Amino acid sequence: MTKTILITSGKGGVGKTTITAYLAYILSEHGKKVCIVDADIGLKNMDTLLGIENRVLFDGEDVLAGRCTLEKALVQDKRIEHLYLLTLKRSLKCSTFAMKDFVSLMILLRNRFDYILVDSPAGIESGFQFGVEICDEVLLVTQLEATALQDADRVVALIQQQNKPVKIIYNRVSPPLIKRGIQMDLNDAHEYLCTPLGGIVYESEELLHTSNKGMLPRLKKGMVYQCFFTIMQRLEDIEYPLPYYIPKSLLSKLRG
Questions:
Q1: I need a surface site. Which of 9, 56, 77, 241 has the fewest CB within 10 A?
Q2: CATH label of the domain that carries residue 200
């Protein structure tokens, strides 16, 4: 049975799209057939992160208008056999998408994939509202800072009004900054949101480098890889333990 996951955030710039891409990679590497639906029409950069921007010739609107088949709008990842992307709308102009259109596309996608990951706009734009209606579960990405948590709290309330299960992903978690009091304590943030934990992603040079390269390279098996592996396990409702943080100095020694 297909599981549809909405991945969203309370504000922009918290790493939602990067987390969506890497979660899709991990799921695909473990034998799951995955489709990313880029519903973040205002930014629409998932194709660039996957390195397939030149291969996106059709979108969801083309499918619904009968200009192409769903198979032509689905773009396969260059490196992973079981990973596909469907862009809702290639143009950045105001979308004419309605709820019924989104539902129609999701019906077409269901039973073709094990997971559909919907990368929605931050906040409560139409892509978010459509996604909440059709999804089985929501992953809400946030960071350990006051404004991000306040925005996340508002979005959690909206999701809960729809009676949809939601889990929090804390991104760019830095234990050294937490220790110095620069970043909020993870336990305090979790107590503030009172929402089940889907996972954490530690701040790391590996992710900083990948974010600046355009197309995301595959993660090496290590601390960051383990972060996404944990999120994948918790999506399967397995209470997998959170990954240990490995300081940069120790990582350097381990790598020789």
A1: 241
A2: 3.40.50.300
